[in-house]
From TrEMBL:
Xref: PANTHER family: METHYL-ACCEPTING CHEMOTAXIS PROTEIN 3, PROTEIN ICFG
Name of the protein in question: Methyl-accepting transducer domain-containing protein
Top-level taxon in the UniProt lineage: Bacteria
Residues of the Methyl-accepting transducer domain: 33-83
GO BP annotations listed: chemotaxis; signal transduction
GO molecular function, one term: transmembrane signaling receptor activity
Keywords: Chemotaxis, Transducer
Any Pfam family the entry gives: MCPsignal
Length: 348
């Protein structure tokens, strides 16, 4: 008997390999039995021929030869039956093992997809906290209430200090209620002061927020004023006195630098080396638009044909044999998520 490695991490593929080995051994042994019975039949036939030549003296030997011939036929029948029955059982076992392996692998990919979307959720939850906190900063509140040149410069410097510590942002903008940018944190890199953003979805939605405790989280978009960078923009009300229910004075928008952060997540999914080349890790928005891809393809231009069948998570096999695993954003703390999905598509 072959020894089993003591490593507890035996995979279903190992069981399938053992099953195939058992099938091959069975076929070999049945073949050996048939070879022996074939030789016995030949010997019995030769014995019958010789006993016939011997006449009466060979009759006793003829009986023995007939018995040997009958026994060899019975053994052949048993061998054939054994081969058929074992072949059927082994084939069923192999099929079951393949199904179990597919189920285990599919669920593993679902777990990896969940891990990817959870990392994003926790990351973006922190952004919702940042924007509401910074919107109460006294320099920002004062500049929104009285947008003098000096006040706006001071607010810009304050936002610059924030950006020096929070490197995940491209820029921070303080806007008035008419959609004009009053100050920014990186004026040397992005000359945006005085530019109009009233047509931006994040401004329209942010301006309508009911209180300073609320926020708006936008989907991934290209921001022309930031050099066409992919950004996730968060907005919160700047209110009088920095209080949640104070009179609205303006809007703070913070622009999360999406591309490097998302790339780190999709490329960091813990796939085995042998499966990485045949796998594609994706983040999809609520409309199945690709917002991040481990191969870098189709970002913000491709719509992935995700078939969830109204499930929050799961996996399925495409017609070509590829496995698609997915998990919808579960949200984190007060961040409910935007209906995004983590997805892994893996070729067989």
């Amino acid at each position: 008997m072959a020894e089993v490695n003591g490593d507890s991490s035996i995979r279903l593929s190992d069981i399938a390999a053992r099953t195939a080995t058992a099938r091959d051994l069975t076929n070999a042994k049945v073949g050996q039995i048939r070879s022996v019975t074939q030789r016995l039949r030949i010997l019995a036939l030769n014995a019958l021929v010789e006993s016939a030549r011997a006449g009466d003296a060979g009759r006793g030997f003829s009986v023995v030869a007939q018995e040997v011939r009958g026994t060899s036929s019975q053994v052949e029948g048993i061998a054939s039956s054994l081969e058929r029955e074992l072949a059927g059982e082994i084939a069923a076992l192999e099929q079951l093992t393949r199904l179990m392996a597919g189920e285990a692998q599919g669920q593993r990919l679902v777990d990896l997809a969940l891990n990817a979307i959870e990392i994003i959720d926790r990351n973006l939850y922190e952004r919702t906290c940042d924007v509401r906190w910074w919107a109460t900063d006294s320099a920002i509140v004062d500049a929104a209430g009285q947008p003098t040149d000096a006040g706006c410069r001071h607010a810009g410097k304050r936002m610059g200090v924030i950006l020096s510590a929070y490197t995940v942002y491209l820029d921070l903008w303080l806007c008035d209620l008419d959609g004009r940018i009053l100050a920014s944190g990186r004026p040397d890199r992005f000359a945006v002061a005085g530019r109009e953003v009233r047509d931006r979805d994040w401004f329209v939605r942010g301006k309508a927020l009911a209180s300073g405790d609320d926020y708006y989280a936008g989907d991934i978009a290209l921001e022309p004023l930031l050099g066409g960078a992919r950004t996730a923009t968060y907005a919160a009300s700047v209110r009088e006195g920095g209080t949640a229910n104070g009179r609205p004075l303006g809007l703070l928008a913070i622009h999360f630098d999406w591309e490097p952060q998302a790339r780190t997540i999709v490329e960091g999914v813990r796939l085995r080396p042998e499966e990485r080349q045949r796998s594609r890790v994706l983040l999809l928005d609520a409309h199945n638009r690709v917002i991040a891809a481990s191969d870098g393809k189709g970002v913000l231009s491709e719509r992935f044909n995700l078939v969830t069948s109204d499930r929050e998570s799961g996996f399925y096999t495409e017609a070509g044999g590829a496995t698609v695993a997915f998990h919808k954003t579960p949200g984190y703390e007060t961040y409910a998520g935007l209906g995004w999905h983590g997805v892994i598509r893996q070729e067989p």
